[in-house]
Amino acid sequence: MNTVFSGSTIDRAAHLRDDSAALTQMKLSKTAKAVVLWRGRILVDIAAGKTICWLPLDAKVLNQATSDAIFLGLQDGNARFAFDISSWEPTGWQSDQTDKIAAENHVGHPDVAAASYFVDLRSMMADLTPADVSVAATAKGLIEWHAAHGFCANCGVATNVSKSGWQRHCPSCGRQHFPRTDPVVIMLITHGNDVLLGRSYDWPTGMYSLLAGFMEPGETIAEAVRREVFEEAAIKVGAVDYLADQPWPFPSSLMIGCKGTALTKDITIDPIELESAIWVSKDQVLASMDGQNPALRPARKGSIARFLLDGWLADTLS
Ligand SMILES: [Zn+2]
Questions:
Q1: How many C-beta neighbours within 10 Å does residue 201 have?
Q2: Dist. CA 36 → ligand 1 center (Å)
């Protein structure tokens, strides 16, 4: 089952990550291109049908990168890189302004084309091709891992980037550190014709989605689904089946989409985790997808939650 994040057209070519001679050569090539991110947002050309901007490596904006290029791999034999320019401060911005801009707002840059903007992937993922979303998720996941993992978890010393951005190495104790991926279960729990939806306190008004939670050490996927649903809503779940998964680089999750059959129906929420949880019928979910129910806003297009709900409504989940 394909979700929006499964569409990579890049050969990661891991054997080249440590090949400094080949990397130097590739960076000199006219066919080498790079994506650029700024504070978690990726540069997208809005005018050209919403596509990721692949820039030549001598593009002026890349001079603002504060770390080496990450080697993403080869696309049709041509090298592809990712750069981070998060240290760039837009003229006149307040120091905390980045955190306050909505996902739907785009940010331009004086050194890029007028139709290109740094965009939040969540607001754009249903418009980009699966190949572009895959590139964006990879680059964002790696860049944000570096930003948050600069020190050795074993001895506390500052670590160095290695393997063209795919590892960090501790110069003191020798420990190698790898980009992390945190598995999260997200589940379509049904009882007859109803689906279980919940909302967190900080979500936009009316937004409800499938329950989700981080897996814990020692759990299988099905065990994590049953534990999370019981903890958050006190619903007991019987059969659980895996359906699809989606890299979700906010900052480093892998969403594992499942369906489960509820054995009970009385909801008791965990008020620390959830503001509300409700059973919603297919007709009610359909009305919300059509925008006819302001009290119930559906999950974002392009998210695995939306994908699973759409499949449930269309009766295409196997
Ligand atoms: Zn160390």
A1: 10
A2: 30
- What's the pLDDT tens digit per position in 5-60? 667 889 999 999 999 999 999 999 999 999 999 999 999 998 868 999 999 999 99
Interatomic CA distance for residues 209 and 53, integer angstroms: 31
Cα of 216 vs centre of ligand 1, distance in Å, is 25
Sequence letter at residue 24: T
pTM, full prediction = 0.90
150 C-alpha to ligand 1 centroid (Å) = 11
Contacts of 244 (CB under 8 A, 6+ apart): 1, 2, 3, 257, 304, 307, 308
